[in-house]
Automatic annotation (TrEMBL):
SUPFAM superfamilies: Glyceraldehyde-3-phosphate dehydrogenase-like, C-terminal domain, NAD(P)-binding Rossmann-fold domains. Residues 137-246 form the GFO/IDH/MocA-like oxidoreductase domain. It comes from Alkalicoccus daliensis. This is Predicted dehydrogenase. Residues 1-118 form the Gfo/Idh/MocA-like oxidoreductase N-terminal domain. Gene3D superfamilies: Dihydrodipicolinate Reductase, domain 2, NAD(P)-binding Rossmann-like Domain. One of its GO terms (molecular function) is nucleotide binding.
Length: 331
């Protein structure tokens, strides 16, 4: 499978390293508005082609799929163009700026019988896949607590008056979309969509959230998702039930180890995995494309749709609006 990439940030380098570990995956092209931005990565990973015209790259018949890691606000446009050009798409999280954009992307993939998948590491990690069978050993579930905090150097820039993409509403940024989204994927993949959502955010004067707590209410339990880019903290997830509790070591982003503490048993789950967290999601995407498994792709898209709906509800409750919302009447 030949893949072209859009974007030149650190996440693209991580993806290129994951691709190098994956059999029958070749990165054949990169798109960047400026040739010099892509050159270092292209030289390091022996990528033969750099395009400064997205339209030109998408007409290349040798490209099977496109990995999209542009700013959040561009995910919809770049996915739309790639799908219309007949390319399968692996689009970085958050899937889109809002649910309205996500629905259009999903509809377009379905109409053109193409594989579209959100690039979210958490739900494809081996240890995460071992979690569901453990839930009955601690249930009924009463509380879920997820915390992912990572102090951002770009927050220093924000405090000094420089607004980078991740702290800019113009680019659909913020802590909820960038970092707390991992927690939401974790909870929603395990338990489905909540009945209600509220988001209590710390906001910069420009209106963007730099940290916050999302509260998800389910019929028989409550889930608290904390995400921060303006502080560091203890990263972990806890699933607490009447019979015991589960501890996800180091948080949902890596799911490095899972410890089960129940009344009659203690258990540790630590499945071997690649150090590169993107490897597993790329394997899933490759298999979907190779098998042309549209039904499995739609199941994953149904999950992404639920997450996008919760993101919309959370932003609405915290009065966080993006320009993209005005364009399609969202929120």
């Amino acid at each position: 499978m030949n893949i072209a990439t859009i974007g030149t940030g650190f996440i693209v380098e991580r993806f290129l390293k994951a691709a190098a570990l994956t059999d029958n995956v070749t990165i054949t092209a990169m798109y960047s508005r400026k040739h010099e931005n892509a050159r270092p990565l292209a030289e390091t990973f022996n990528i033969p082609s750099i395009f400064t015209s997205l339209e030109e790259m998408l007409t290349d018949p040798s490209i099977d799929a496109v990995y999209i890691a542009s700013p959040n606000s561009m995910h919809f446009l770049h996915t739309e163009k790639a799908l219309l050009a007949g390319k399968h798409v692996l689009c970085e999280k958050p899937f889109a700026s809002n649910q309205s954009e996500a629905e259009k992307m999903i509809r377009l993939a379905e109409e053109n019988e193409l594989i579209l998948m959100e690039a979210i590491t958490t739900i494809h990690l081996p240890n995460f896949l071992e979690l569901s069978p453990l839930l009955k050993e601690v249930g009924p579930i009463r509380l879920v607590k997820c915390s992912y905090s990572q102090y951002s150097s770009r927050y220093d820039k924000l405090l000094n008056g420089e607004t980078t993409n991740v702290f800019n509403t113009e680019f659909s940024g913020g802590a909820l979309m960038d970092i707390n989204v991992y927690n939401l994927h974790f909870v929603i993949r395990l338990f489905g969509a909540p009945e209600s959502v509220t988001y209590h955010a710390n906001k910069h004067e420009n209106g963007i959230d730099t940290s916050g707590i999302a509260l998800l209410s389910y019929p028989s339990f409550q889930a608290e998702c904390t995400g921060s880019k303006d502080t560091a903290g203890f990263n972990a997830a806890f699933i607490q039930g009447e019979k015991g509790w589960i501890h996800v070591i180091d948080g949902v982003n890596g799911c490095r180890r899972i410890e089960l503490h129940a009344k009659d048993t203690n258990k540790t789950v630590e499945v071997n995995r690649e150090e590169n967290l993107m490897y597993e999601e790329l394997l899933v995407f490759k298999k979907l494309v190779t098998d042309h498994n549209l039904s499995a792709a739609m199941e994953l898209l149904s999950h992404s749709r639920k997450v996008m709906k919760v993101l919309d509800q959370a932003r609405k409750s915290a009065d966080i609006r993006f320009p993209a919302d005005k364009l399609n009447g969202s929120l």
